[in-house]
Amino acid sequence: MNDNHLQEPIDEGLEKARRMVEEEEMGLRHAVGWQRFIVPIVAFCWSMFQLSLSSWLLLDSTYVRSIHLAFALFLIYVSFPTLKRKVNIPGLRWMSATDRIPTVDLVIAVVAALIALYIAIDYEGIANRVGMPNTRDMIIGGLLVLILWEATRRVVGPALAVIGIVFTLYSFFGPYMPDFLSFKGVSLTRYIGQISLTTEGIYGVPIYVSAKIVFLYVLFGALLERAGAGKFFIDLAMSLLGRYKGGPAKAAVLSSGLTGLISGSSIANVVTTGTFTIPMMKKVGYPPKKAAAIEVAVSTNGQLMPPVMGAAAFIIAEYVNLPYLEVCKAAAIPAFASYVALFFLTHIEASKLGMRGLPKAELPVFFQVLFGGLHYLLPIFYLLYELIVPRHSPDMAAFRATMVLLVIMLFQHVARLRKEERLPFGEGLKLGVVDIFEGMVAGARNMVSVAVATAAAGVVVGVVTMGLGGLVTDIIDTLSMGNLYMMLGIVAIASLILGMGLPTTANYIVMASLTAPALVTLAGDSGFVVPLIAAHLFCFYFGILADDTPPVGLAAYAASAIARSEPIPTGIQGFLYDIRTAALPFMFIFNTDILLVGIDSFPLAIFIFVMTCFGTCSFAAATQGWFIAKNRFHETLLLFLVCAIMFRPDFWGHLIGLENHYICYLAGVALLVVIYLMQLPRARKHAAAIAATATGGAA
């Protein structure tokens, strides 16, 4: 086997993409001397604390939230400089220092951690003073808000901090706004008391879920990546699909989907899988822009995949008061149908360009890869077993799966070295311990952005609960003029705009707290029932799509750096590929069968999944102008009709008076077969022309 395809293509573009991920998730600083030990030690302690919570350490939830935030704030202030751009003004150079931790930031980090711990340190006193904070409470509570906003600005950019400031100002100046926007307002005492000193603001549901559940899944993913599972997923996908038409792109879809099971970051997903798949896509004939755009689309969609869903699945479960498995059940068909459509879309692009797959000699051998990496699948299957069979809580399932993974990491080098090189047992054990330590450090560092984003989003949620919720409903109703379609469009556009500057989880929290209840209420007023889970998933989907939406889409910038393409055109192309994902939320709002709401029959669920896949693939074929050959105008219209039938069989069944609307699916399938037969002669002619061109070129 030729292993050239496995060699990491070290070039300027790849290094640029990796720096983007590091800046986005782990900070810019690389301290030297004794300071270089601060971040790893604190990060490791944070991971140990979180693992202890799921095993032997019993703490009140308020203590858990405050300690979780304290770790995050400390790591942010020692990892991220005040300014990213170089400052050359004497006396202010420390603000952009990346080779050391300035004393100012070190002091702020300690103070920030202590302020975050205040609610735990004076727990009983604060509980006795609910609604009547003293001067010390007011000062420390106010400082917590300011320190949190600055930490948010450093790690996720200014957008979320600005939104928090706007909502804060609105809560104070609401009485002075025009009648359309007027709000009774709150006092400073009530604001500080609720936002900083209760579990209805910064220490609310989002950060509790972050501390209780999300951390364990992010840690599990970081450990799995450190163990080598990411490379295993890529090799497995290439060995299965690399030889087929457009094989590397199809492998990118599969490997990114597998990585998305455990990863909560589309940018990290791009670099993990795109490092290998983008160069190979270019090798078989994909233009750089399209190779990068495909990777952006599949990596962005990785956040749709249960069980992690970019860390949002657990927060959705808390907000809609549903068991976690019910959220995964609702998200399953849209997520997998989206990936099936993207798989088909890569086939369309390969067919247009007349591509072939990679030679078999350049691909890894499937069974060698599979048997060589079975141990990576064991903790994943064990996690799914824990969630589905005994139905343990998500945090307990993640903890137990992590313990299995730690044992594997500890001994995998021992087994490999003794088999290949006959090295001593102790040497392999030492490598395993190093992997575990570095994986736990990486997991904690990956969590800082999630922890601070959930805390900052809690400010918005806290202000909304002070009485803004009803006002937001009235504003949306006025803007949409009571029209449900306009209302959905407004929410979708707002989610996309906010998502350009917010992490996915924070964007979901903000939009769901503002608009999900309004969607349900106003839809009910229009005589249409929208389940709460559908409204929340609607906000979540459009928040994810912002990762590849120009001009900001960071995933597009990372992929374009690897592919050496222009970021904006890459983002536009990626968004065009993701249009099929943008259509899904509108569909499951009106057809809740796609979310399996009220459906417990497994055969019926499989049937709905297959029909939804036909619908998403038809939509992809219509928007890309190609099914099995280039579409004619009437064929594109027919494909859109197939899509409409597959997504809304209830509408068509009601229209023609059918009691069992599932029969309409058969009409959609029949119409798809007709389109296939119409295009088949042209597809054969196109294939023959490509083969003749290839033969002529070889001659």
Automatic annotation (TrEMBL):
Pfam families (UniProt xref): DctM, DUF3394
Lineage top rank: taxon: Bacteria
InterPro entries: DctM, DUF3394, TRAP_DctM-Dct_fused
The protein's name in its UniProt record: TRAP transporter 4TM/12TM fusion protein
Ranges annotated as spanning the membrane: 37-57, 63-80, 101-121, 156-173, 205-224, 327-345, 365-385, 397-415, 447-472, 484-506, 526-546, 582-599, 605-629, 660-678
TRAP C4-dicarboxylate transport system permease DctM subunit domain residues: 143-598
This protein's UniProt keywords: Membrane, Transmembrane, Transmembrane helix
